[in-house]
Amino acid sequence: MRATKSERAANDAEARFKTYVLNHAKLAATELPKLTPTQLEGWRKFLRELPTRSGGRRGERRSDSTLNRDMTCFRAALNLAYLDGLLTTDFAWRSKLRPIKNADQRRELYLDRAQRLKFIEKAPADLGAFLRGLCQLPLRPGALAMLKAGDFDRRLKVLKIGQDKSGKDRRIKLPDVTAELFETAAKDKLPTAPLLSRAEGKAWNKDAWKWPIKAAVEAAKLPDGTTAYTLRHSVISDLVHDGLDLLTVAQISGTSVAMIERHYGHLRSDVAAGALARLVL
């Protein structure tokens, strides 16, 4: 992962593997060929009941999406061992570590433009600028929070997104109206300063935006479960629905075309219907 993706992704996988696999004494002491479906099913149940360690649901029972993320590194390690010939079959984990389908409920919530504006209006000024950034670009909240003032090229109106979940840098050419937001944010800042910062100048993070966002959601009377990530989903939905090709959507979003097709492909039906209508003689 360090060679093909990013340090961040590798560190995250390493931490999950150590915490949930190697710290499980009985499992860690088992030789790979001796793993059984029953043993892995027991580990999965153990992980399911283990309270979450971070984020807005700290201390609560794991959600389906969290369980999927925490199982991924173990399943990937076993798959690699199988491909490398250290195991002769994947029978033990093939079904027991299968990810739960449709687990990511974040993509079910959509905010229209009026709701997004209300979200921004009800937030403190510093958080409002951060939310506005999420409303104008399909970025992950963490990726936007990590941006530095030097990542915005005022002359070319290009924003460089560093190593995101996709594992490599990408550059986005901004329209004038979007460039204005980042030009204002970068004004009088050193290149290493956070581009969209909190009032005290510090970078945003999950712990910093958790409660202010919850308060803004309540004040704006938005649907329960609305998060910063909901804005990313809403923006991607609009881009796909408005007819932008899926490859471009995937590139600026920092994800794969397959993911866009899987979660947003159904939104292309209206685009297709319009194209078919234009064929009528």
Topology readout:
Blueprint: H1 7-22, H2 25-28, H3 37-49, H4 64-83, H5 91-94, H6 113-121, H7 125-136, H8 141-145, E1 152-153, E2 158-161, E3 170-173, H9 176-186, H10 206-219, H11 228-241, H12 246-253, H13 257-264, H14 268-277
Antiparallel strand pairs: 1-2, 2-3
Helix pairs in contact: 1-4, 6-7, 7-9, 7-11, 12-13
**Given the helix and strand composition, which structural class is it?**
mainly alpha
Roughly how many Å is the radius of gyration?
21 Å
**CATH H-level name of the largest domain... which superfamily?**
Intergrase catalytic core
What is the total domain count?
2
Number of helices: 14
Total count of strands: 3
Q: How far from one another are the termini?
A: 54 Å
Give me the side-by-side strand order of the main sheet.
1-2-3
CATH architecture of the largest domain: Orthogonal Bundle
Percent of residues in helices? 40-55%
In CATH, the topology of the largest domain is named hpI Integrase, Chain A
Which ranges are low-confidence, i.e. pLDDT below 50, for 5 or more consecutive residues? none
Strand content: under 5%
Q: Regarding CATH, which class of the largest domain?
A: Mainly Alpha
Average per-residue pLDDT, rounded, comes to 89
Could you describe the largest sheet, including whether it forms a barrel? 3 strands, antiparallel
> Shape from CA axes?
globular
Order of helices and strands: HHHHHHHHEEEHHHHHH
